[in-house]
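Notes from hallway chat w/ T.B., transcribed later so I don't forget. T.B. wanted the structure written out for a chain they're using in a teaching module, and asked if we could keep both sequence and structure tokens in one place. Agreed to drop them here.
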Amino acid sequence: MQTYPILPMKKNTKILLTKGNTTHLFWMLMISLSFLHSCNKKKYRWEAGISAPKYYPVAGNVNFGNAGNGANIAFDSGWGNTYGAVVGEKWKDTPKEVYIDYYSVVDGKGFKGKVSLPQEKIKDLFNEYNLDDGDNLGHLVVGMAPGGWIRVWVQALDQKANEYINIEVAKRHLKGYKDESVGVGLKTKDFKTWGNTYTYWQHHGIPYEAWANNEKEYDMYFDFNKPNKREIGFSYTSQDGTFKQGIGIWKKFIWKLPVEFELGWRDKSKETFYCSKFIMPKSFKSFVEKKRLNTIIFKLEIDDNDQDATLYLVTNSTKEKILRFKNKHPTVEEKKNNEYGYATEIEYFIP
């Protein structure tokens, strides 16, 4: 082992602080801290995220050069919702581009390509949402949809609203290719393999236009709990595969129109649980557009038998019936998988 000589220390060495050198040391310290801070400003706390529309699963990878994410199994987190998590270098530069390669199950083909990113805009958003703060973490989320449609969002915590928001920074349409390397499970499209996901395809098809053009968002309210004197749990999916869930309290949300609902509640004795899905009327979107509505108020009224219910659209204090359905007792398997079937008794009042 190599050794190094130890220099003898001088005894009684003293450092005398005078007014002059104290000031000098202070300013040297300030300059050093300023330098470190400016260096740190060039990097931000962010991770790479991936997303896919609900009921339109994909598998694939994204690579920003200094960060990446991916899944070899199909996932459908909901359009804009991140899937999984990665642990990488804490502080990173803002990327200039992202390389994407993924397989869309419903299309039966792969899509890949490079997407350029607006680096300065991303920096501005990172600064706006304080992603240079060690306690604040953001994401660059890549949304991968059928047809090769891509979105890249900056996802950050809006501290005023106390919720995470997505700001779109890039959109691209990638070319497809025949990918023979994927497993049989991804290639197979039947109910046995995909269950309710396959049923969803039969009902709604593949709405490529929903990813080609961003859907409109509305001020939305769910008047479910108060009229029925109980808690109503709900989730819904919009045309582009955005997935939302909550309880029916009177609160403003800024969300897209639903194409499918799932509603669950207990009877008055709180002993029996009902839960099922139902499809919204096919013309509901055009119905809303013709009325030129910007605010959507859904009201639910459950009958005395605790099982039948009517969903209304409230406009100008007037209730308009949308549909009426009979909720179901979930099977043991549905409860176990937290995946509920469709209501079989339903009446529509809008075509």
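Follow-up for T.B.: The longest helix spans residues 19-41. Might be a good example for the class.
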